[in-house]
Amino acid sequence: MTVRIHVPADSAAASVGADQVAARLAIEIERAGLDARIVRTGSRGLFWLEPMIEIETAAGPIAYGPVAPADIPGLLAAGLIDGGAHPLRLGPTAAIPYLARQERLTFARCGAIDPVSVDDYRARGGFKGLERALAMKPIEIVEEVTASGLRGRGGAGFPTGIKWRTVLGATADQKHIVCNADEGDSGTFADRMLMEGDPMLLIEGMAIAGLAVGATQGWIYIRSEYPRAVTTFTRAVEACRRAGILGAKVGGTGPAFDITVRMGAGAYVCGEETSLLESLEGKRALVRFKPPLPALKGLFGKPTVINNVLSFAAVPTILADGAKAYADYGMGRSRGTLPFQLAGNIKFGGLVEKAFGMTLGEAIHDFGGGTRSGRPVRAVQVGGPLGAYFPADHLDTPLDYEAFAARKGMLGHGGIVVFDDSVDMAEQARFAFEFCAKESCGKCTPCRIGSTRGRETIEKVIRGEAVERNLALVDDLCRTMTDASLCALGGLTPYPVLSAIEHFPEDFDRAPARVAAE
Amino acid sequence: MHRGQVSGWDAAVASRIIEARRQEPGAMLPILHDLQETFGYVDRAALPLIADALNLSRAEVHGVVSFYHDFRSEPAGRTQVKICRGEACQAVGCRELAAAAERRHGLTLGETSPAGDLTLEEVFCLGNCALGPAVQVDGESHGRVTPDVLDALIATSRSRGHA
Ligand SMILES: Cc1cc2nc3c(=O)[nH]c(=O)nc-3n(C[C@H](O)[C@H](O)[C@H](O)COP(=O)(O)O)c2cc1C
Ligand code: SF4
Ligand code: FES
């Protein structure tokens, strides 16, 4: 029987040579006349082992990595296609401790299947949630999602079921499902990995949302920095159309549902939901005032469900296995699992899907192996560029929405960015203002102008000019931004700035500037 | 993305691109992306054509084009390098990488060389945050990039372009 060899086509795996590995492997298989076929998959998310390849054996997949093109003749000689012994052999994929200790619901299939094959997806349990939803009334689907406790994974953590109920309750000739795939937060890559590795899970989730609220049109807005995600997701949509899953009868028997893929154009603010809707409508992406809520007046003025990639991707599992099975994971009001992303100065960077509740320190040390540089962890930024910087003594914080809020931080999209003791926190605070100034949509003055003033003021602190007075000015500016910004870009930029000042005061205590000595 | 498929502005080609999309709801961004993909930039001469097709004023179209970081009004260099400046890449030395690239090529981020062979740009996150410092060269991602690796990538792109 033809042996399947899996080689990731994930863009992070490709960034360290996976395409070259696949090309060389194809040549060597041909040359040796082996009965093997290369399947390009997503990534398992163990990035220090990429490019990691897997052989499908009767006993399950066996992994090897990190593989360089030059390793391939040796690997084949060692009996790669039978799972043979070799220094790069990692053993059965499922037994690799980093993976074995996870609780993968959303990412269970990522890296294990051909992402654009309907058959692969179905063979691994795909479309079970959609099938069940097709037999349910819309309100029953909404209630199932509500009972699961699922909260939006895009940052704000708003209960998904409540949002859907509002859209279901609205009457209109047309409703929309919009997927926010603008994933602009630094330190996050879960949405990208899912779109490149298991896009049909997201398609299934969006289709279930369509059934739940009575929407026939779906849209996905993918950022342009992710060209492979755009390509793979588009191919997956086409494959689902050919298989009759999308189109005139969703899942073959339901009402109409189809998905249009749109690409962003390099503006961080388009991740904000109303800005994203403006962008989809073809306008400058200025944030809208709320109300009206998008649930009532969203895309093209119609009732719209807008959710993050991971929120939609959680839904098929909830429908297939039941709300309770999902809600049994987690702590407090944070139910289910969250795919955390370990990034920055970290030894074993990658994707860790776990129930809420593990501590930040467990994620960084038990999974991440500490810093890549080997130096002590000094600061950790969780939740993207608007998230707070935590010092090392906050590593006992559980990964849970409320626990983070209690320490003036936020979990956001689950991105964990580690810095070692060489980091200059005044420079990080300066950057937070710079980022806000560059990415502001320009609608409100505190965000548009305040961020530029903030950057200038921190630069004065860095130069040692009137440090105390300038830090007081920063504090004042931050208060204005918090109180008077329309959206979280201006409203949360004070988080990284103030947390840096609060937890790392020594970095702001600059020697007074030397005035011209002569 | 980077280099256009067509060299030089061509009003007839642009009109066909616009016509093919104009009926789509919210057609503006797809049209701008298609124009940029084809020509490598969005020529000023395209604005009145888009305005006509979508029933908008030229000022409105200009407002959209200038809002988004992706759309450029001048062609980019033949090799286009985007260096990530997001926090995860900062934690592993992207500031030093960017500074080295600027020094070696005599450009600051955002500039194109006078000979038109190289554009250096900044980007905030490529979704490769576990393998930083990350860059994209002509649309392809690269991870754990050092100044020397970046130079080699630029050299490879150049030799490919001149082959
Ligand atoms: C500046 C800014 C950027 C945002 N970026 C994203 C993003 O990239 N992806 C995302 O899903 N949500 C993002 N959000 C949150 C969205 O506005 C919105 O809360 C979310 O898409 C709702 O989906 P959810 O309920 O599934 O989380 C951002 C918000 C702000 C203020
Ligand atoms: S806070 Fe900034 S990004 Fe948000 S609406 Fe105001 S100006 Fe726009
Ligand atoms: S921060 Fe550089 S790739 Fe994400």
UniProtKB/TrEMBL annotation, chain A:
Pfam families: Complex1_51K (PF01512), NADH_4Fe-4S (PF10589). GO terms for molecular function: 4 iron, 4 sulfur cluster binding; FMN binding; metal ion binding; NADH dehydrogenase (ubiquinone) activity. Residues 426-471 form the NADH-ubiquinone oxidoreductase 51kDa subunit iron-sulphur binding domain. Keywords: 4Fe-4S, Iron, Iron-sulfur, Metal-binding. Coiled coil: none annotated. It comes from the Bacteria. The keyword Iron-sulfur applies. Its cofactor is FMN; [4Fe-4S] cluster. SMART domains: NADH_4Fe-4S. The keyword 4Fe-4S applies. Belongs to the complex I 51 kDa subunit family. NDH-1 shuttles electrons from NADH, via FMN and iron-sulfur (Fe-S) centers, to quinones in the respiratory chain. The immediate electron acceptor for the enzyme in this species is believed to be ubiquinone. Couples the redox reaction to proton translocation (for every two electrons transferred, four hydrogen ions are translocated across the cytoplasmic membrane), and thus conserves the redox energy in a proton gradient. PANTHER family: NADH-QUINONE OXIDOREDUCTASE SUBUNIT F (PTHR43578:SF3). This is NADH-quinone oxidoreductase subunit NuoF.
UniProtKB/TrEMBL annotation, chain B:
Its cofactor is [2Fe-2S] cluster. GO terms for molecular function: 2 iron, 2 sulfur cluster binding; metal ion binding; oxidoreductase activity. InterPro entries: NADP_DH_HndA-like, NuoE-like, NuoE_N, Thioredoxin-like_sf. It comes from Prosthecodimorpha staleyi. Belongs to the complex I 24 kDa subunit family. CDD domains: TRX_Fd_NuoE_FDH_gamma. This is Formate dehydrogenase subunit gamma. PANTHER family: BIFURCATING [FEFE] HYDROGENASE GAMMA SUBUNIT (PTHR43342:SF1), NADH-QUINONE OXIDOREDUCTASE, E SUBUNIT (PTHR43342). The keyword Iron-sulfur applies. Binds 1 [2Fe-2S] cluster. [2Fe-2S] cluster binds at residues 84, 89, 125, 129. Keywords: 2Fe-2S, Iron, Iron-sulfur, Metal-binding. SUPFAM superfamilies: Thioredoxin-like. Gene3D superfamilies: Glutaredoxin (3.40.30.10), NADH-quinone oxidoreductase subunit E (1.10.10.1590). Coiled coil: none annotated. The lineage of its organism: Bacteria, Pseudomonadati, Pseudomonadota, Alphaproteobacteria, Hyphomicrobiales. It comes from the Bacteria.
